[in-house]
Amino acid sequence: MLPDIENLLKLQDIDKEIRRLQDEIAELPKRVAAIEHKLAGTRAQLEKAQTAVKADEAARRKYDTSIKDLREKISKYRDQSLAVKTNEQYRALMTEIQFAEKEITAHEDKILELMVNADARDKEVKATQAELKEETAEIEKEKQQARQRTLEDEKLLAEARGQRDQLRGGIREDLLRQYERVSKFRGSGIAEVRDHKCMGCQVILRPQTYNDVRSGKDIVFCDSCQRILYLSPKEELVEKKETVHRPKRHHPKVDAPQAWYYRPEFASDGEVFLCLTNAGGQASRRVYDIHTGRLIGDILIREGNYREAFPEDITGSTRLNGGWSEEELDGFGTELPMVILDSLHADLDAARVEAESGSRGKHEVPTAPTSPAAS
Ligand SMILES: [Zn+2]
Question: Whole-model pTM?
């Protein structure tokens, strides 16, 4: 893996952690505010209950005063009744006294009612006070925890920012800009390639792009989402295993009716894969670009078998494994499918490893094909 990619992946992790910490720090005051809001509700409830108690007490005092006044009035009427001259005057006073006594009874009833209510109100006030006390303690605890958490988060955030700055210093500036620009719009700036797909946007890569990512020589961008691409470490591992532990490469048969070759130079087209086939006494030749898998030029047909018909193409080419039917070849059209291109590349890699290690099969030598052979 390229060092820039490794650093970008680390940077992505750090960026994620920074976002998480920032979110958490922003979330804590909101949680405290929510509890405080509840606390304010309980406080209002308590105030309402206390106001009601005070109103009841005022009403009771009013009734008490009124009763006292009425009793004084009755006492005055009784004194007057001793001095009256006529029965009529006496009866009038008695009526007044009766009226006042009725009023006293009514007031006493009211006072009794208020006393009964006072018990309930008292209970309500006490319960709300207890609730308030509990909530206040809770919020103090929460606030303390929030403060502690925020302090820790801020410390971690400062550390993460330091790490980020350090990492940024080790990444090419143009890459960093691309990473940040794409991150801003898409939430991430770097994406894994798995099964020929960009895992950032799920689009299948063009063969050329995929090969560039696989070669790991330079930074490659996704054509569709612009994220920086890297090969999934799992695939990279498989790839390595395939190239390292390939003790026995399957060797193509010399007399196969179809033969695939790798040619490092083909006219002005550079590296190509050649597909030579024999059919009905004729030989055909297809030429494909090894990076894009695109068919170059027309299919060439000559008389005889391909070894006789295209000796100049075979000499100096590397023979590869591969065999597909004529219909399949037609079906590929002007571009080899990715799987075919992959298998040819894999076999080419294996052939090179084999050539370097000096092992030679008993069949055809991959780097220097022999003349028409009788098997
Ligand atoms: Zn993409």
Answer: 0.49
